[in-house]
Batch of 3 targets.
Target 1
Amino acid sequence: MKKVIFILIIIAPFYPACSQTAKPDTDLKEQKSKAELFSNKSGSLIQKQFMDIGSLRGCLIQVAQFTDLIGGETTKAVRFEYAYSGAYSSDTKIGLLDMDEVDALIKSLNIIKDKIMPTTPEVYTEIEYKSRGGLEAGCFYSKKQWSTFLKLARFDDKSFVIMKDGDIIQLLSLLNDAKAKL
């Protein structure tokens, strides 16, 4: 009996570690847009085409069309490409917005433009739209003024595109042009 109690005392501290749940399959870093998942399908021959829509603050906006040449399926997305230049390195940041998310982004930007920007909060405030693939758009209130932004990759602070006054109107126009080509 003493041996059983002794073994239980030794094993007990390790029991909680064994019963922890497994990591979920949908880790935030691994979330991808439908277009990314489609274009990365294994066992398929994918054709990628990019139609320029315009640019804003160095961010090129395109309509991306992905076609599976074996299965004949096609999907489209709005593609954002930004060339980041830092003090020690440069890189190209890319974000995709699925075609079924374009209306939600346009609606969100209109709310920001019409209802949020005219307000004057008393504290630091952030408003964000997040797509399933990690693209973010929004605004923040700091130093008594609103600033709008795009963030092309969820966990990459170098993918920020900070916009100036009036840029939100140009972005809405570019998104509507892209929507017409989806």
Target 2
Amino acid sequence: MKVKQIILTLWTVVTVQILSFLWAPISQGQTLSPFTSNGNNKVVVSDSSKAADANLGLNDTVTLEKTIYYPRRIPNSSFRVGEKLTFLIRWGPLHAGTAVMEIPEITRVQNRKVYRVVSRAESNSFFSTFYKVRDRAESFIDIEGIFSWRFEKHLREGKFKADVIEIYDQKRNLVITRKDTVQAPPFVQDVLSALYYVRTQDLIVGTSIAVDNYASGKIYPLEVKVLRRERVKVPAGVFDCIVVKPILKSTGIFQQKGSLKVWLTDDRRRMPVLMKSEIVIGSIVAELTDYKGVVTD
């Protein structure tokens, strides 16, 4: 295998499987209502306009609905504005690059308050000689319900360039992109918001967390198994962790494309400190090197 092909394989795994946290799908078998049980019906007024919230492209339009919306409420004491996590990415013994996940601000999307979460991945100078990577993804996560309203992915990988925007119309259970509109289950997550949702959950060893996820035009129900407790040492320090593992199932058949495990701190922060993915040509490891602005006890 040529060096450039190896680098391409590496960064495909890192940016998709680890950084974007695109977990393997399985059936969730659970339906939730997008409205709390408060005795009120939603009131809908159609509004077709240039989508300030759904900025799909110059002069594009999208029909959204103004709705009296009562989403679920998920208590969140795990993360907050100002959190910044920095990771070293290794391929075997080689330092391949760095990744950052941060929450720089609270903003508004579709008239809802959201966390703006930004994930960036960059190859280091050595790997950039063969295959330069400068990727960025942004997720806009509902503060109350911890689900996605919007997702952006801006990929700069060698000569390849792609910009993807996904609009999550949670009021009508739709995901809207330039290419199509997909019917989605309530509270569907993007590939980045799924991680932040799991961080808010009560992780009990031997149980699983189920969450619906959208990626590349399809809905992927996800299951995250809570495996065990384990103490790990990374450049940022020593942490007591809970180990979780995503499981894949597609159209009824298990498809294991590498094994991804994630170590989350065994406290209310559920901060990711270590991620490992076994692939055909070795293993990819992302280790926490620095953390700032995190929730404190």
Target 3
Amino acid sequence: MTIQREYLSPNEIAEYLGISPFTIRRYIKLGELKAVKLLGSFRVHKNDLQAFLKAHEVNPAEEALEEEEETRAAPPSAQPSHLPVPPPAVSGAPEIPMPQNPPRRSRGRPRKNSL
């Protein structure tokens, strides 16, 4: 899709970028995407859209490097773990095994057996 008109609606921008119009309006309301309001509707100049996209460009190699540096800088206790951490052992107390999965709650009404 090529941009031909000077001003675009949030819906047109969202369709062009493949994101939600709500996201475009949020960027406008936060002041990150410059827009004008005509008769109650936002319009964004194509140059402002291009400037916004340029400001949000990322270099995948730089992002990977930043994530790696953050991981190295974080102390081990701050790194998220997907495994539960057992509490410290108390001397003389019996060892209780940690449950593997929490019990599941049923949703809605129980099914009737049709036997």
